[in-house]
What does this fold into?
Amino acid sequence: MLGPSGSGKTTCLMMLAGFETATYGEIRLGGKPINNIPPHKRGIGMVFQNYALFPHMTVGENLSFPLEVRGIEKAERKKKVTNALDMVQMSEFIGRRPAQLSGGQQQRIALARSLVFEPELVLMDEPLGALDKQLREHMQYEIKHIHEQLGVTVVYVTHDQSEALTMSDRVAVFDDGRIQQLATPADLYERPENAFVAQFIGENNRFKTEIIEVKNDKVLARTATGSILSARKVNCGEVGTTSTLSIRPERVSVGLKGENTTKAKVLELIYLGDHIRCRMSVEEDNEFIVKVPNSLNHTHLEVGEETTVSWSSEDCRALDNGD
Amino acid sequence: MGLASGMESTKDNHNNVVITSDGIPLKKKLAKSLFQSRLRAFGLVAPLLLLILFAFVIPILIFLSRGVYNNTFERHMINLTPLISSWDSNSEPTEAMFEALVLDLKAGKKSKKIGKVATRVNRELSGTRSLFTSSARKAKKLKAPFKDSLIKANKKWDNLEVWRAMKLTSISVTPAFLASALDMKYNADGTFERKPEERRIHLQLFLRTLEISLIVVLAGLFLGYPIAYLLASLPVRTSNLLLILVLLPFWTSLLVRTTAWIAMLQGQGVLNDLSVVFGLATDEDRFSLIYNKTGTLISMTHILLPFMILPLYSVMKTIPPSYVRAAKSMGATNWTAFWRIYFPQTIPGIGAGGILVFILAISFYITPALIGGQDGTMISNFIDFHMRKTLNWSLAAAMGGVLLVLVLFLYWIYDRVVGIDNMKLG
It folds into this structure.
């Protein structure tokens, strides 16, 4: 689950865990409604934002707690705890207290604890939020690998889109308490269904336009300056309504003639190694971004230069009005 | 070779003194600036430190020293003291001792200090007060041999017990008061024995004080824990309002609160009237809720309750709700989550609140004095009794000392069992 803060991700997660009551609708787990099952009987593992490792217990006691309350025998408990610690490579820390561990280590223990009782579903509430960038990336892969190993379903809340795209099979983009789009990471990026998703996932260039013609899956739209652009019909209204046209910066070519060609003026160039980021003024929009790949024969641009930009109508998506 | 050169370089580093820009070695400069900052810190606390030292610590130490030091006899019986301290306390007192006694009695009569000496000896052997005062009046007329004439004046001077009592009081540094505070008697031959049963009173009083304090702590915990939990889990706006209600008693004088309890608890008081109205008691046979232990317990629990709630509240406030949630998500029932996860984390608050209430309760004075009656009085009331009524300050000091040692001992036990760094006030 991905979304800006205040979009309802955590509330939704808490409803799944049973700590918030759903005022409307039904929550099903494996086909069974779980609305009226108290949290401790749902059998859902959970990793909290601040890990919530019990400070008065050692790592081993923390891990064996969920097994103890399930009435599992001591020998069995010991085996499972050892296995879970092995999985996160923390076996030698079994006697330590949470306060004696680093953030990354605590994170691993919290992960192991949520998995030790073999739940059907594990919920993770921004579990990597408190880690530094490098450790976060490392842990992302580690969680992904454990997930692949065990085959358990994980619902993962984050506000970091790269984290969501790296780790997920499917991403639910939240805004304003609603799921805006539920799709694979590739679909989210390539085929956003509305203006919010398009601007939230990755960069995009937008034009406010008025639809003047709808033909099958193509539309023609007029920009504020009067140019007519053709785009793919995705989520726009009928003729006469406003629509946001969205185009990814790397799908725009400079200097070439194509389906949609319009005049552009280079405002700023930023050299980023693998590509050059170019801010242009297109159709009165001074924030139009183009990524020019740093290849042998890339177009050489200079600030203030006037040129043209073009893109395929396949890559330009006509979405809702975005307000 | 590599090793040798390595050693050489460390040696070099030692000789190489780092110099600051004004030519003073860095180490010296650092020490100087550290000293200055310490001096500044000390300067900030000095006024309060001096006040506490001279108005609090030193007077208390001087007073406590009275518990083991009393020089009334030595100071006023200057002639007899050296003789009696070398006496073996079994043989007949010599003529020289009698002569010295008469000299001291005469001097005591003149300086009007003999009463003090008489009171002091009377504490060791009752019935000797009048012996001293009457003999002092007659001392002027007594003639040698003093032994015979003094015994003739009062037969009691022939009694060895009197002399033993004098020998005891002539020793200024004495464990006699401490022994008395613990219902023991210190004998002239240096042995201790328990006082006769009907005269044992202090130990029972210490035990009762401990009992009352413990009950108040437990009752406070029982009543305060749920309130603190409620305060910590409510939204801040509501909990702040309720917190004011908890703090409200602090704005009322202790005396007012205690007298309010008298109005509540007395025979014709609010509680008894209500009990009669609701048929819990008959008009003739009302509950006796005041001037006994019950009254002391009820009002002390009420008065000390905020001291239990506040530390508990501030500790509970720091426990994030995610712990209990995590426990529940792992399959713990509400009770297990509370008992295994929440409760252990509140122990520092229980420790802090408990020790705070206990120490306040053990030295509580006004409430038991007004409400306690016979079986609700505490050790502090008895210390006050000796301070103001019997004027036996040495015994009062000894009892205070015993109380202090007792509290320190309990504190030590607490440290061993719970750990003092486990205590948290917020």
